[in-house]
Design brief:
The complex is a heterodimer. Chain A is of the alpha+beta class. The longest helix of chain A has 15 residues. Chain A has a 5-stranded mixed β-barrel with strand order 1-2-3-5-4. Chain B is α+β, with helices and mostly antiparallel strands. Chain B has 5 helices and 13 strands. In chain B, the strands form 3 sheets. In chain B, strands 8, 9, 10, 11, 12 and 13 form a 6-stranded antiparallel β-sheet that branches. The longest helix of chain B has 22 residues. The chains are: A alpha+beta, B alpha+beta. The interface between A and B is large, with 72 and 80 residues. Strand 6 of chain A pairs parallel with strand 4 of chain B.
């Protein structure tokens, strides 16, 4: 019975939890974690939507042109459970630095590894430390 | 208030894990307490509330979760610390804030994805398909990420979406509310048959009618779209699927179980793993599920 309940816990959690299912979209297939880049720019837009949150960061290039980078994350549900809200943490119009895993298709996009907020706080979105 | 505290290595889990872990803990308590028949009150020993007509009252918020979680961070000493919310971090630049689910192996989404896929194959109760469908079963098993309609933002539907998070019961209706997709179902329990039009429609939640079998509410649902799956990866069904869901309240525990009848597709009815949900008495907010969008330009890069 106990095993049965544990089985149910695992199975149902996996079946019903939208976030890990959405994770099947396979970030590693779309983005290259071995090819990272740090970009700094002005937050233009935050889209707190499923299946992936998106941030649009306007980055001024060396030639003074501006590129809008589309930065992806996971679903908003997971961030909520970490106490992170869209407007509470990512007000638009301010300057942020993003460390991203670059999109494999070469577009101006990536998967978020860390955000550095205007107040200096660093948010880890893909952390490798801890051998668990 | 600063809720600074050291955490054990096991960190906040996903909502449904918490929900089911809490339920499992509840059941374990009941199992331990039952033989000794001590006077300890368990969620199941509480008298089951009943409505004026004598049926169990299923009304309530069921399962754990709801509301926003704590903010977890690593301080300069390398310790895990927790704050009630973002605004209460005294010096945000002195800590590293964990934004991603730390329950993943090595805190890494890549491992999280691989592990989820593996667990799903090892620990699930798989529907048994008729041999003429095996080719499709195999195809979907290989291409689940591409073919899953819910990855294209369509609803998971009944029964994949599981038990509701809240139930409201009146004398002739039961209202089932789901956080996933902000969905609701209104189930008549006044003895009426299925709606002749809705029962032949192609829907995600189906046309549902309920009857009481003793203290168990039995909800019969038909009228489904064949786009939905029973589970991942690729447990398909036909539009003739009939789903029977059983709701039973024992004290402050809700037992939920769904059975899928689809004889043209399945060798035998598929009995979904049951859910055991404790009554949730927290005041945590119900959170809206944000809409799902996979239009251009994301769609080209979306599928793994």
């Amino acid at each position: 019975m106990r095993f049965r309940v544990l089985t149910v816990v695992v199975a149902v959690a996996l079946l019903l939890s939208v976030v890990p299912l959405m994770a099947h979209h396979a970030a590693q297939a779309q983005y290259d974690k071995d090819s990272q880049q740090e970009i700094t720019g002005v937050m233009k837009r935050v889209q707190w939507i499923n299946p992936h949150v998106r941030w649009i960061l306007d980055v001024t290039n060396d030639d003074y042109t501006v590129t809008s980078w589309e930065i992806s994350g996971s679903g908003p549900g997971g961030y909520r459970r970490n106490g992170i809200s869209a407007r509470g943490v990512f007000p638009v119009g301010e300057t942020y630095t993003a460390l991203i895993a670059l999109a494999r298709d070469g577009s101006a996009g990536g998967y978020i590894m860390t955000w550095t907020l205007p107040n200096g706080a660093v948010l880890d979105f893909w952390h490798d430390y801890g051998a668990r | 208030m600063n809720l600074r505290m050291k955490l054990p290595m096991k960190l906040p889990m996903k909502r449904s894990v918490v929900r089911h872990a809490a339920a499992a803990a509840g059941v374990a308590i009941v199992l331990c307490a039952a033989p000794a028949s001590v006077a300890t009150q368990t969620p199941e020993s509480v008298p089951t509330p009943r409505t004026a007509d004598g049926h169990p009252d299923l009304s309530g918020r069921w399962g754990g979760g709801g509301g926003a979680g704590f903010v977890t961070a690593i301080n300069e000493q390398g310790e895990l610390v927790r704050y009630a919310n973002f605004a209460e971090i005294p010096d945000p630049s002195a800590v590293r804030i964990l934004a991603r689910i730390v329950g993943y192996r090595k805190g890494n989404p890549t491992f999280g994805e691989r592990d989820a896929g593996l667990y799903q194959r090892f620990f699930t109760n798989v529907p048994q398909y008729r041999p003429e469908h095996w080719e499709r079963v195999e195809h979907l098993d290989m291409h689940g990420n591409y073919e899953d309609a819910s990855f294209h933002c369509l609803p998971q539907g009944v029964p994949r979406m599981g038990a509701p998070v809240k139930i409201l019961q009146t004398a002739d209706e039961v209202v089932l509310l789901y956080s996933q997709g902000n969905a609701f179902r209104i189930v008549p329990i006044d003895g009426r048959p299925h709606d002749p039009v809705a029962s032949l429609d192609q829907m995600y939640l189906g046309d549902s009618v309920g009857t009481w079998e003793g203290d168990t509410l039995v909800v019969d649902a038909v009228g489904f779209s064949e786009e939905t799956w029973l589970g991942w990866p690729g447990w398909f069904h036909s539009a003739d699927m009939r789903v029977e869901e059983r709701f039973r309240r024992d004290g402050n525990i809700l037992h939920y179980q769904a059975t899928v009848y689809d004889p043209e597709i399945l060798i035998e009815p598929w009995v979904m793993d049951p859910e055991v949900l404790p009554l949730n008495t927290t005041s945590a907010a119900y959170m809206e599920t944000p809409p799902c969008q996979t239009g251009p330009p994301m769609s080209g890069r979306e599928r793994g």
